[in-house]
Amino acid sequence: MDNQRLFLVIALVFILFLIWNAWMQEQVPQRPPAPVAEQTDRPTEPGMDAEGVPRLADVPDTFTEPEAREPFATEPDAQRIRITTDQLNAEIDLQGGTLVRVGLLNYPLSQDEPDRPFPLMEDRGGRMFLAQSGLLASEGAAPDHHQLFQAEQTEFVLQPGQDKLEVPMYWEDESGIRVTKTYTFYRDSFVIDVDHRVDNASEALWRGTQYRQLQRRPPPGGRQFGIYTYTGGVISTPDKNYDKISFSNMSDRDLNIQSIGGWVAMIQHYFLGAWIPDQDEVNNFYTQALSAERYVLGMIGLEQQVAAPGESTTFASRLYVGPKIQERLEPLAPYLARTVDYGWLWFIAEPLFWLLNKIHGFVGNWGWSIIILTIMIKLVFYKLSETSYRSMANMRKVAPKLQQIKERYGDDKQKLNQAMMELYKKEKINPLGGCLPIVVQIPVFIALYWMLLESVELRHAPWMLWIQDLSTRDPYFILPLIMGASMFIQMKLNPPPPDPLQAKIMMALPFVFTIFFLWFPAGLVLYWVVNNVLSIAQQYVITKRVEAAAAKT
């Protein structure tokens, strides 16, 4: 296989990779509503089914949505608690004490609506995403996420100089069981502590456990052609540090595994919600597909908390609701930073982002940081690229002789290949020398692709002039057109393939890539443009040197 054929294979593989991304986002058919899983008639313990999973059949088959209104509207709601911190706008429904809305104040929904927070959690329509929690009692009474809590106030605001904000609510049973559910918000944080304190004023022993779950619907259909990113569940256990549980997986079967520590999360492009237990705590992780395209991913602890008459016990948990920022996620739980989903080449992508972040710390602009990072990568691979381009230049030099051999032995493949190998040996040319260095660099390029795609830091980040958001497409398609032109120039610098069909395909590739890149995020296209321009400069200089050396001999 010569240089051109291997290059053609690499290009076609990359095109297939792009098509797969588009197909995953556009062509996967919408699933019909998932049926409610069958429940056992006689659970082994109150509040649990035969396998120790919360009885999710108690969740209504149809979700009663509130009346349509603007997100985080200012009108009071007697059954909603509103919380405002320096990072979050949130709403808690007293029906179950469920976190039903979270807006990220420093992450606008769009550049056209800078004052509208990105709604990560909502309880409306196709964007429904909730964080539910509750208690299950085998002895005594306990509130699940359907019971009505009471609160002394419905507005909480983190004041200047205040580092944390506690939001308590209460539930009490006639027997004397009182549960205080407290959400604790922190300054400059997306972490929310959620505690259940059980005070037993009854005359009987109380025994039970807590569960925490995330419930959401898949993203609505009708998305534009573009980049596919994963939206769905993820769990982490000692056996599998990072295990995706897609909505289709949840439809196929219910998950039920026991784990020490770990965490459960629902992730999407740039953002996530995750329940994080104490890492010494034992939980059963579970999933269930409910009706109306709703999916539940959660965990339930072992029944080990006991409150004797006159005593109390507390269940603690932690919730993260916010952007995928690695430096914020890493301290919370092992492998939680992996939710910044760089794909199977994460071990290459993470160091690349670390370097990009360091560069940004000096230059203060993500666009220029991408350019500097691209230059640094080119310098690292300079020698490999030099070998590749030198081999291509040598192939270009002997292209006329190859054409003569083809015309002479075109009908005899055996003699054709033999004559070509003799020519390569005489001219001291390795026909694979131009492509093997390129193959070595492919994992780095793919890792960089995912790193730029997944980094929330690039969301709404401006570069200069007309590029005011590196995470969205170039509004005027200027960068993709420059990229296509640079790729065309690269093709011209390479030796022409002896096969006319290959030559036509190679010349068509710049146009095909340009069409794909029209919808790529500008940050990704910027990388490709800079990389191509540097490659053209390096290849041009090396080709001229080889041609000059050949002219002297």
Q: Can you give a write-up of this model?
A:
This protein is α+β, with helices and mostly antiparallel strands and 553 residues long. The protein folds into 2 domains: 3-17 and 350-552, no CATH class; 76-220 and 230-339, Beta-galactosidase, Chain A, domain 5, CATH 2.70.98. 35% of the residues lie in helices and 26% in strands. The protein is built from 12 helices and 19 strands. The protein has helices at 3-26, 247-252, 326-329, 346-363, 366-380, 382-397, 399-409, 413-427, 436-454, 478-493, 500-517, 522-552; strands at 80-84, 88-93, 98-110, 113-121, 129-139, 155-157, 164-172, 177-186, 191-200, 206-216, 232-236, 243-245, 256-260, 263-267, 271-276, 282-290, 294-301, 305-307, 312-323. A hairpin with a 2-residue loop joins strand 3 (98-110) and strand 4 (113-121). The longest helix has 31 residues, at 522-552. It is elongated and about 100 Å long. The two termini are 29 Å apart.
Instruction: Assign a percent range to the helix content.
Output: 25-40%
**Tally of helical runs:** 12
Mean of pLDDT: 78
Low-confidence stretches: 1-8, 19-53, 56-75, 222-226
At CATH level 3, the topology of the largest domain is Beta-galactosidase, Chain A, domain 5
Q: Radius of gyration from the CA trace?
A: 30 Å
Number of strands: 19
Level-1 CATH class name of the largest domain: Mainly Beta
